[in-house]
Design goal:
- This protein is of the alpha/beta class and 424 residues long.
- It has three domains: 5-164 and 233-308, Rossmann fold; 165-227, no CATH class; 321-423, no CATH class.
- Helix content is 39%, strand content 17%.
- The strands form three sheets. Strands 3-2-1-4-5-7-6 form a seven-stranded mixed sheet, with helices on both faces. A two-stranded antiparallel ribbon has the order 8-11. The chain has a two-stranded antiparallel ribbon with strand order 9-10.
- Helix 3 runs parallel beside helix 4.
């Protein structure tokens, strides 16, 4: 197989990606969805990880540093180490400037290809971020094996890979530009052609119709990476399971940026409707349901997911766990008040950030549970308070009954990554 690595390296030396101005670090902190320690803890360490005790992170193909800076910022008061590995010295220089402005001292820099990790004597890592990298390798499996070689036995990988169906318009534009640029090897000439083409194509063009121009906001680097990259491939849900689970034995947990698991769940994609075909889909294995949802929604141009050896998700149903809201400044008492005011049975949730409108069974005790949900109390402590409520204490429910009653609300908020768990 031909290896385009030198050409790929040259692209990122010329156009470090994503385009970042280090001085912007004085004004804001960019977050990366999979790299939230709350998310990592919930999905990769059963909610039990203590990040203050020697936590080691590798950002493989870290580019200009988004994941590296966010992880290092979260871990800066811990005895933790973040290793940033990238083959582009220009990209590393940008990331280093960003870290310097933030005063981050917990980052180690390696200017090399992730394919060389097995021979670099870097030790083992508890968490590896590899976002948007493996699909640019001539042999993505070689990259995965390199990552696995430095992963701690109970460690986890946060992965982002391109999605086939969601990139239909992008792939058509890439093929169009490849035809027009036949015989042209000059990067800036190709860029100019791409800009002209985007302005010239009719509104019927699938790239335009699909509103897939977001990455163009990153300027020349974004345009080149999106439409002119010399080496890439994409994956369907089923292809990811066949590769990552069937071949390598990893457990997969998908979480789309901003939307969580919802784009992989057919019943949430069509909510609030309940078409009859859902009854045929619900009994299917999760893997098949996710593949069906991918085809239904058509928007998954990227797949973001965690890889672990075995299921490592924080378990619902254990009284020693603390439920908490994340990604939005909503509180349990606020949701409780909404249920109190609502006349809907079941309670209809209109979630603006994900665009999902879904009826959710609020149960007999949901509003009481939410009233005491503050991100500090365990389920056991919350349930004890619920049983003191005037409308409840004459016939107090067991913990098991309360878990079952609250399950629909938890399942919905967890599906959109707005409620997670951590162990006390």
């Amino acid at each position: 197989m031909e290896n385009f690595l030198p050409e790929v390296r040259q692209q990122y030396e010329t156009l470090p990606f994503p385009h970042r101005r280090p001085e912007d670090e004085r004004e804001r902190l960019l977050t990366t969805w999979l790299d939230s320690l709350f998310m990592i803890n919930h999905y990769c360490f059963a909610g039990r990880r203590d990040f203050t005790r020697g936590f080691r992170v590798l950002v493989a193909g870290g580019g200009t540093g988004d994941g590296t800076i966010y992880l290092a910022e979260q871990l800066k008061t811990c005895a933790a180490e973040v290793v940033h590995c990238d083959m582009s010295s220009a990209s590393i220089a940008v990331a280093q400037q960003r870290a310097e402005i933030r005063g981050l001292k917990n980052i180690r820099w390696i200017n090399d290809s992730l394919l060389n990790l097995p021979g670099l004597d870097v030790g083992r890592f508890d968490y590896i971020n590899c976002s948007g990298v493996l699909h640019h390798l001539a042999d993505p499996d070689a990259g995965l094996r390199a990552l696995a070689s430095v992963l701690a036995p109970e460690g986890a990988i946060g992965l982002m890979l391109y999605g086939t169906y969601g990139r239909t318009g992008i792939e058509q534009m890439r093929k169009l530009l490849a035809l027009v640029n036949t015989g042209n090897s000059d990067a800036y000439s190709k860029l100019e052609c791409a800009k002209q083409m985007i302005e010239a194509v009719p509104r019927t063009n699938w790239f335009i119709r699909g509103n897939q121009q977001d990455q163009l906001q990153y300027g020349d680097a974004g345009t080149y990476d999106l439409l002119l990259h010399s080496q890439e491939r994409s994956y369907t849900v089923e292809e990811l399971y066949a590769w990552l689970e069937d071949e390598h034995g990893f457990h997969l947990e998908f979480s789309d940026t901003g939307r969580g698991k919802a784009p992989y769940m057919p019943h949430l994609l069509v909510a609030p409707r309940k078409p009859e075909f859902l009854e045929k889909v619900r009994p299917r294995p999760v893997r098949e349901q996710q593949g069906i949802a991918e085809l239904m929604g058509g928007t998954l141009d990227m797949h973001s997911l965690y890889l672990t050896r075995g299921v490592r998700v924080a378990p619902y149903g254990d009284g020693a766990y603390i439920p908490f809201f994340c990604h939005e400044p909503v509180t349990g008492p606020q949701i409780s008040a909404m249920i109190h005011r609502s006349k809907d049975q079941p309670f209809v949730i209109n979630h603006a950030h994900t665009g999902i409108t879904a009826p959710v069974d609020q149960g007999r005790y949901g509003k009481f549970v939410l009233q005491y949900l503050d991100g500090k109390r365990t389920f056991a402590e919350i349930f004890a308070l619920v049983r003191q409520e005037g409308k409840v204490k004459h016939q107090p429910p067991s913990d098991e009954a309360l878990f079952e009653d609250f399950k629909p609300l938890y399942t919905f908020f967890n599906a959109i990554e707005r409620m997670l768990l951590k162990h006390a």
